[in-house]
Amino acid sequence: MFRKVVLLSLILIIVFFHVYKLGQIPTGFHIDETSIANNAYAIAKTGTDEYGFRYPLYFRAFGEYKNPVYIYVSAFLYKFIVFSEGTLRLASVVFFMVFLSGFYMLVKAVFPESRLTHFYALVSAGFLPCFFAVSRVAFEAVSVLALIVWFLYFTYITYEKGKLHIYAFITGLILGFSIYTYTSMRLLAFLMAMLLVFAYRGMDFYRRNLFFIAGLIPSLIVFLVFTVNNTDAVMSRFNSTTYLYDDSTGIFEKIFMFIKNYLLYFSIDFLVLKGDVNLLFNTASMGVLFIPVFILFIFSIFIVFKRKMYRNEPFTRLLILFLIVSPVTGALTIDAPHTLRALLTGVFILIFSCYGFNEILKYKKKILLVTIVFSVTALQCCYYLYDYFYLYPQRSLSSFYGYGFKYAFRKGIDYNPSDFKMHQMPLTYVNFYKTIFENEGTFYSKAKFIPAKGKCILYDKKRFMVKTDVDQFCGGSNSYDDGLEDSIFRVRCCKE
């Protein structure tokens, strides 16, 4: 009974920190977040995306196509909840909770008798920096966590526990479906399917492998048919981020770049000390892992090779293979290491750390070792949460770009709704906040607003208009200029 109370309390704490000030921290919204939200809301209300396409497989955005899983789940949520800043990121929390439950089930299946390992898994997965940051922004990549961890769970109970062959079919179905979660899975899903069949080769597994492939095929067929007919939609994002098509770089330079980028994903600098330089997905206060997770991971790898577990235990061998290939897509891109492209690497590292934690429970000084692990993890967790909720919001303002747009937009509408212009403003922001205002009942209505004298303009003071251009619109004592401090968005209205 006590264990259940502790477990429930921990889950409630994890949920609380994942939803606390969700619409306010990180401060401001990234343009990708509003694009995803706009499409999801449009699908929920009309069945069409922003461009009028009815229930598309991929969603056209600015220079790329967004994956469908996250958007359709968000659309489903918008059937029941209000479209708002607070609910914009709610789908990420849902995906994360699906991941957390799957990870807990996986660890329970692998270590059924070790309750301390179950507890360690929940604490680590619940607050690990690389997962926590991604679970609080509306980006597609978080959906990868949810599907892949359940793929691993069904793989384990199918191939290691001898469950019915229908579970092998479900395993293939989940992996195939993951192709539509995030761009990197378009390659990784194929690699992981081949590695699973390789790890469980032999006559003992051939029927399960057949069922696995049967579950995988429907998703692959749909994806391949779509790719043939819409190559640009599938390849646009990769083409814009990779160095492979750079004619100024030779083949050997590209090979060297791949090796260098690949190793960065396993560097101490990235994993433990600094993490990703991109403040969208990292606070820059520590690495993407907690120190105990990294140390237990290294320890478990040592044990695996010392005992040659990769030979005798197919699931362990499979996890090693998955760990090896997980950074491949990230290594093919320019901006490495990247947190979103390292999410699966983080999952496999965390699983191996559970192996390491379970191993120290066999030592004579296990009480001391367990105390150290939980103490250091708790300290790092507290520091990370403090930094995330109190220091990171100000630090990350420039990365999220949209900070202050709502304020300036609202001011311009209130001052003069009949003559309000926007200079090269991102349409996705405009549409997003129009919907927000309408849902709040505060968008421009002739019954509510009396037009003021003088036209207004919303502008980006850094990117779109130099000061002289703004002054030509109206300046000096004849102008009213307003905007939030530290925001690049301002509104200028003429008084006359």
Description of the structure:
With about 500 residues, this protein is mainly α. It has 23 helices and 6 strands. It has helices at about 1-20, 30-45, 70-75, 90-110, 115-125, 130-135, 140-160, 165-175, 185-200, 205-230, 230-240, 250-265, 270-275, 290-305, 310, 315-325, 330, 345-360, 365-395, 395-400, 405-415, 425-440, 465-475, and strands spanning about 60, 65, 420, 455-460, 480, 490-495. Strand 1 and strand 2 (about 65) form a beta hairpin. The longest helix is centred in the C-terminal third of the chain and has 30 residues, at about 365-395. The N and C termini lie far apart (about 70 Å).
- The portion of residues forming beta strands comes to under 5%
Output the radius of gyration: 25 Å
Question: Approximately how much helix is present in the residues?
Answer: 55-70%
- Provide the residue-averaged pLDDT: 89
Major sheet size, sense and barrel closure: 4 strands, mixed
Broad structural category: mainly alpha
